[in-house]
Amino acid sequence: MTQQMVQSSSETIRKIAENIGKVMKGQSPAIRKLLVAFVSGGHVLLEDFPGTGKTTLAKALALSIDVQFSRIQFTPDLLPSDILGVSVFDQGNQSFNFHKGPIFTNILLSDEINRASPRTQSALLEAMAENQVSIEGKTYRFDNIFFVIATQNPVEFRGTYPLPEAQMDRFALKFSLGYVAPEQEVAILSSQEIRHPIEDISACVSVEDVLQVRRNVKEVRISEELKRYIVDIVGATRGAPGIQLGASPRASLSLIKAAQAVALYDGRDFVIPEHIQEIAVHAIAHRIVVDPQARFSGVTAESIVDDIIKKIPVPA
Question: Which own/partner pairs from 220-223 qualify as long-range (CB within 8 Å, at least 24 positions apart)?
Answer without folding.
Answer: 220/1, 220/260, 220/261, 220/263, 220/264, 220/268, 220/269, 220/270, 220/271, 221/269, 221/270, 221/271, 222/256, 222/259, 222/260, 222/270, 222/271, 223/270, 223/271, 223/315
